[in-house]
Design goal:
456 residues; Hydantoin permease; 0% strand; 78% helix; mainly alpha; binds phenylalanine
């Protein structure tokens, strides 16, 4: 068998995994969910889940990969044949995410183009975003360009180049985001937004009976859980693959800690940039807070508009977001591609073309869902929201649940903690075992059940 190449050391591993983890999920998705689901309540639930469940699942996935030296399907299969279907299910997730992720990547390119060509002011105008996504042609063009760039990078194997660039871009993104967040906080009315974002306020919940509270909290927890999987690239086999490239002497436990801090930190900052600004511009009405996928694109240009040099800052910001998005879309594309290559005899070039064309076709649904097919709803969702929901709120919880059962009861937590301890004594052996056997699976079941009640 070919020897697997590996990351050079801990820093290399953490940066590569963080490159996959930090992306549109942190900057675009996290703030709109936090805005929609009660601000501080969402933030609190998210942090609790990340520290308990997220930590356990990420540890389990990376260790599974490193232990077996294989990616998802092979890893499950080699440890227990009956569970290879979990690997298959996990492999399905990036297939669903890649197309719509690239649609959003296209939106970022459109805004970058607007700011670079001096159109920042019009991008801040009311109705700009709606006008853009409801046109039949333009969003498709930007989507195809974004997906095309991703495919080319993967085809020519220049990921290393992109990763090098993003190692510089990422810290710049952090610094710029801190600057923008501080600016947002100084805008009139922003303090109410800050309070909304960081202080959990249960009196704001639109509920009066215990059942209503359970429903709303269940819905919030489901959104937070899906977001955690998405943002940390969990429950889709990606961390298993990354783990398979990790050397045995790299400290697994502290790597997980670093990735989590990085990922959650950037998401928190993105919320700090956007949510106070929503309050400043619109007083934090439920409509404005519930804007969903459009929130970042509507709010940030308005912030840049009021800033000195906003045109340049806006352009810089969208370049950085584009790089963060590309490192993530590359890892998504790469995963789908290796899946196609492993399971068929198709060569890499041809497989690349197939993934590109396939994703293009599926992504068209998400584009047209906002324009010519905006009256078509799938289970009450627009296409993009539907793909997002199916992957984050249905498939990923199922994969995560099965992974917990697999580790907790089939191969037993010791198999994982022993692997973790190859590179140093673990302080969280006991915690991990309790998490993966009891806490995490019970969380998932409770969250799924309570959110089922919503639709009843
Ligand atoms: N974690 C990435 C983000 O937050 C999205 C992603 C998911 C990337 C799955 C790769 C795989 O944007």
């Amino acid at each position: 068998m070919e020897k697997r190449s590996s990351f050079s050391g801990k820093i290399g591993f953490v940066l590569a995994a963080a490159g996959s983890a930090v992306g549109l999920g942190n900057i675009w998705r996290f703030p709109y969910l936090a805005a929609k689901y009660g601000g501080g309540i969402f933030l609190l639930v998210y942090i609790i889940l990340a520290l308990t469940f997220g930590y356990a699942l990420m540890t389990a996935e990376i260790a599974l990969g490193r232990k077996t030296g294989l990616s998802a399907i092979g890893a499950f299969k080699s440890l227990n044949k009956k569970f290879s279907f979990v690997g298959w299910l996990a492999a399905l997730v990036p297939v669903i995410i890649l197309p719509y992720y690239s649609v959003i990547g296209g939106w970022v390119m459109k805004y970058l183009y607007a700011f670079v060509t001096g159109g920042g002011t019009s991008a801040a105008a009311d109705g700009y975003f709606g006008g853009f996504i409801s046109a039949a042609g333009e969003p498709v063009l930007w989507f195809a360009i974004f997906l095309g760039i991703t495919a080319l990078v993967v085809l020519f194997g220049v990921e290393k180049g992109i990763e090098k660039v993003s190692k510089i871009m990422m810290p710049v993104l952090v610094v710029l985001s801190i600057g923008i967040a501080i600016y947002s906080l100084t805008m009139p009315g922003a303090m109410d937004g800050l309070k909304y974002y960081i202080l959990p306020d249960f009196t704001r919940l639109d509920a009066s009976t215990p059942l209503e509270y359970a429903q709303i909290l269940g819905k919030t927890a489901l959104a937070a859980m899906g977001q955690m999987f998405y943002s940390m690239s969990l429950a889709m086999g990606i961390m298993i693959t990354y783990g398979s490239y990790m050397k045995k002497d790299v400290n697994l436990e502290s790597s997980v800690k670093n990735i989590e801090i990085f990922d959650t930190g950037i998401a928190f900052l993105a919320g700090l940039m956007i949510i106070p600004a929503v309050f400043s511009f619109s007083g934090g009405t439920p409509e404005a807070l519930g804007a969903g996928p459009s929130l970042m694109f509507i709010t940030l240009p308005k912030v840049f508009e009021t800033m000195m040099g906003g045109q340049i800052i806006g352009a810089a910001f969208f370049v950085l977001v584009l790089f963060a998005a590309l490192t993530s879309s590359i890892s998504l594309f790469e995963t789908v591609l290796s899946f196609v290559c492993d399971k068929t005899k198709i060569g890499r070039k041809m497989a690349c073309l197939i993934v590109f064309v396939g994703s293009l076709l599926v992504g068209l649904l998400s584009c047209f869902g906002y324009s010519i097919w905006d009256s078509v709803l799938v289970f009450g969702y627009q296409f993009l929201d539907f793909f997002d929901f199916i992957s984050n709120s249905v498939l990923m919880p199922i994969v995560a649940f099965l992974t917990c059962v697999f580790v907790g009861y089939v191969i037993k937590p010791k198999a994982i903690t022993d692997e973790v301890e190859l590179s140093g004594k673990s302080k969280r052996r006991g915690v991990f075992t309790v998490m993966i056997k009891y806490v995490a699976p019970i969380f998932i079941v409770l969250i799924l059940i309570s959110s089922l009640f919503i639709s009843l």
